[in-house]
Design a protein that fits this description.
The protein is α+β, with helices and mostly antiparallel strands. About 25% of the residues lie in helices and about 40% in strands. The protein is built from 5 helices and 7 strands; from the N terminus they run βααββββββααα. A hairpin with a 3-residue loop joins strand 4 and strand 5. Helix 2 packs across helix 3.
């Protein structure tokens, strides 16, 4: 598959190495925990045809050639459903907005493959291949969305008048004597 991202190659590379970005991009991902050296513990819920399973396993970045290419591999155990193994070879190329020379955009290309065993293997290779292709495409679409979405704008801080109008703020009540004028020091009151 292939994606054209409107960001620099360095930004895409950084996103591919970021735990939170990976968690957001992996379809069905419940958790990603970094173990160091490009290794992660993952928990993913996936459905292949009628079989839905929670896979607990390992995600690993291999053959890193920053910021141009790497391989992302996965091994997971789905209990009674079986196991899944797969990998995606990812390559990042610099390009211009219209595909010409330049470096304002990144052309992300990938090749993915998957192997399964257990109950999942009984479903049939055609359905398994289609599911693997769909999940790979979803991963890279979600990665693209995570990288290109603008940072959420901070909400403006409301004024006290706006808070009071909304009923979220009430001015403190004060006794009338506290509001009476105060004579300056050294001057008798009423003078």
């Amino acid at each position: 598959g292939e994606q054209l991202l409107p960001v620099t190659r360095d930004r895409v590379w950084a996103a591919l190495l970021d735990t939170e970005t990976l968690r957001a991009a992996i379809p069905g991902c419940e958790a990603v925990t970094a173990d160091g050296d490009g290794r992660y513990q993952v928990s993913v819920v996936a459905a292949v045809g009628p079989v839905k399973a929670r896979f607990k396993g390992r995600l690993q970045q291999q053959d890193l050639q920053p910021p141009a290419r790497y391989t992302l591999s996965f091994e997971g155990d789905g209990g009674m459903a079986g196991f899944a193994r797969g990998s995606a070879e990812v390559e990042l190329g610099e390009t211009g907005a219209d595909g010409t020379a330049g470096n304002s955009h990144t052309r992300l290309t990938y090749t993915a493959q998957a192997q399964i065993g257990g109950r999942l293997a009984q479903i049939g290779s055609r359905l398994v291949d289609a599911t693997a292709a769909r999940m790979s495409a979803q991963f890279f679409e979600r990665l693209t969305a995570a990288i290109t979405q603008p940072a959420p704008a901070a909400a403006p801080t409301p004024t006290l008048a706006e808070l009071a109008a909304a009923g979220a703020y009430a001015a403190p009540s004060m006794p009338p004597e506290a509001l009476a004028p105060v004579a300056p020091r050294g001057v008798p009151a009423g003078a």
